[in-house]
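Chapter summary example.
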Amino acid sequence: MREFFTADRDCTTSYCSAGLIDSPMLARGLQILRDVLSRGETLELPIVERIDANLLVRIVRIFGEGPDRFAVFFEAEQTHSAIEAAAKRHGLTKREIDVLELLICGQSTREIAQRLRITSSTVIHYVNSLFHKTKTHKRAELVSYVYQDGPESPREMRA
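The structure predicted for these 159 residues follows.
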């Protein structure tokens, strides 16, 4: 499961993935964002909070849209752990992680560029960097690699 929405400081949503539309999870995510904002924790973003045993909410600031734009991701703990492990294992930059997260959501180059407020060429640069660092060649292979390969994967032992 990987759903997200974007919102501004007053919690007005500007984008909502299909699985969240008219969902109680959207209201829950907005409440968590309000709580984070009221505690003044936006300088410490990203913030990850557990909703239940297997579900996490991660709040990140969207750069390039001013200081008051946020993305709220709902993710299974497996997704969060897999991305963290890949980032650590391969020395991914913050922006590479941002692109990887949106790739996992199934976003196209154009959609990632719009969401991150960067050019499509820049997205392609980050995707190619992800391919190089993970020794993958296709987006589907990259996503599969993130979920399936552990710290001592056969791929890394061959390298």
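To summarize the output: Helices lie at 24-38, 77-90, 94-104, 109-116, 120-134, 139-148, 154-158.
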